[in-house]
Specification:
The chain is mostly helical. Helices cover 61% and strands 5% of the residues. The chain has 5 helices and 2 strands. A two-stranded antiparallel ribbon has the order 1-2. The protein is elongated and about 75 Å long. The N and C termini lie far apart (68 Å).
Amino acid sequence: MHAESDERTGESAVSGEHGPEKSGTGGEEAPLGSRAPEFIKARRTLHLSWQVGVFVVGLAVVGTGIVMLPLPGPGWLVIFGGMAIWATEFVWAQLVLRWTKRKVTEAAQRALDPKVRRRNIVLTTVGLVIVAVLCAVYLWKFGFVMPWKIDE
């Protein structure tokens, strides 16, 4: 990996040694770097303020997602939303999102493999049978009584 400098804005972007990366769907991915409007990138102070604002908003969204992990709510979805906000401005976040998308696509492809699907169906069936047997044993032994009301 090497850094390329943009003379106009003074930013640097990291790119791969083998050219632009391709997405799993066959199209090229968006180039790395800021997606701020041109009039903002043209003024260094305004662009720095823009980056600070994007960072703060992204941090708030990621922080909300982290709080949602143990609480009810779509914690991981909100965290990835915050990363997407950061990716509009920061190359490191763009690279993290590209890596994440690639790994999710690979996992989805593996999950669609007939051998993996068959194994997952067998494991799910075995798990459901075990739960059903445990429920049947409980009902046979105690009847339809809640566990905290058993007098034994």
